[in-house]
Design goal:
The structure holds two protein chains of two kinds. Chain A is of the alpha/beta class. Chain A is built from twelve helices and seven strands. In chain A, 46% of the residues are buried. Chain B contains two helices and three strands, in the order αββαβ. Chain B has a three-stranded mixed β-sheet with strand order 1-2-3, covered by helices on one side. Classes of the chains: A alpha/beta, B alpha+beta. Chains A and B meet through β6, α10, α11, β7 and α12 of A and β2, α2 and β3 of B.
């Protein structure tokens, strides 16, 4: 059985074989690791990390992405990807991610070509392959490679190797885009995204740790917390603080999900994946 | 999904609530007599989750009223 270190050696060989890469970079656990390994393997002249900024990309994550790039001297470019302007995306169908990634990769492809970078890569990992991920189709259509998935890296292995390398994202919770908090069929708007982002930021400021999602249900915010945090924040005094923090972001009503955080929770709500599939 | 059936099951657990149905999401509004810190109990939360699933709900959440004294919002 190949260890995480073995897989990292494979990844370095994979990158060197390609010669140069443009990394679709969000500052999340996966793309930060991939970009840092690529930088080590290829050198700064042959790596470019590109952030696609939009209303669905949390400002806090953007700041984190810039900090990591600065810490490791990672060459970085930022581009605007206004996926909300695409009404097919804004209508929020179950394949919403396809339209977002189509805009992203279409924006990044000319940058890679102009700089002579051989391949575009993303941070998709092996665990992601079982999820409902319509964005993967957009990547395939544009020949975007996913070496972490291809080489069998699990999320835990990426965290492990990130820790070994001193990449601060190793313990960072997963951070999908803000649109993932809005149920399918409910339009994605800048105002709704801002409300979710403000609520999550307020909860972090209050001291909520671990995985956290504020799910948008019109006037109601449904807060998903990690199991450890759930017991802590359901104590009446703390619940009042939690409620006030979320209400301050513009939600009239606040509820706490009794099952806690589940990745892909809204996929279950809409029957896109069966209940047992959500973790 | 059935709010009435869910309410009956919750009452049996000693947790009288009104159940608001939003598609497959059940939002619980504990009555004044419900213990305010009942949901801190992880085992109770798991039991509520199992009941919710058996009644066709994919999600169950408890609404936090403004004063957090267990009153219906």
């Amino acid at each position: 059985m190949r260890t995480a270190a073995d897989k990292e050696a494979d990844l370095i060989a994979w990158l060197r074989h390609r010669g140069s890469v443009l990394v679709g970079y969000s500052g999340g656990v996966d793309s930060a690791y991939l970009a840092c390994v690529a930088l080590d393997a290829l050198g700064a002249e042959r790596v470019l990390a590109v952030i696609g900024r939009s209303a669905s990309y949390p400002a806090e994550q953007w700041e984190g992405a810039r900090r990591i790039a600065a810490q490791f001297a990672l060459p970085l470019v930022e581009v605007e990807t206004d996926e909300l302007a695409d009404e097919r995306y804004a209508a929020n169908p179950t394949n919403r991610c396809y339209f977002c990634k189509s805009v992203l990769w279409s924006t990044l492809a000319p940058i890679a070509a102009a700089r002579g970078l051989a391949v575009i890569v993303d941070g998709t990992n092996a665990d992601d392959l079982g999820d409902h991920r319509p964005g993967a189709q957009a990547a395939r259509e544009r020949q975007v490679a996913s070496p972490l998935a291809e080489l069998g890296f699990t999320k835990d292995e990426i965290r492990l190797r990130s820790r070994e390398r001193g990449i601060p994202t190793w313990s960072q919770p997963s951070s999908p885009c803000l649109s993932s908090r809005i149920p399918y069929g409910t339009a994605v708007t800048p105002e709704r995204l801002r409300r979710v982002e403000d609520a999550e930021r307020a909860l972090r400021a209050l001291g909520v740790g671990g995985d956290l999602r504020v799910r948008y249900h019109d006037d109601l915010a449904r807060v998903e917390l990690s199991q450890t945090e759930l017991a802590r924040w359901l104590v009446p005094e703390r619940a009042a603080q939690l409620r006030a923090a979320v209400a301050g972001a513009g939600f009239a009503r606040v509820a706490v999900d009794l099952r806690g955080f589940r990745s892909g929770s809204l996929n279950v709500l809409h029957g896109v994946v069966p209940q047992a599939a959500a973790q | 999904v059935s709010a009435d059936a869910f309410e009956r099951e919750l009452a049996v657990l000693g947790l009288p609530c009104r159940v608001e149905v939003r598609a497959r999401l059940a939002v619980l509004h504990p009555h004044a007599g419900a213990p305010p810190d009942a949901m801190v109990d992880a085992e109770l939360r798991r039991r509520i989750g199992r009941i919710a699933t058996s009644l066709g709900f994919s999600h169950v959440a408890v609404e936090l009223p403004g004063d957090v004294r267990g009153e219906t919002a």
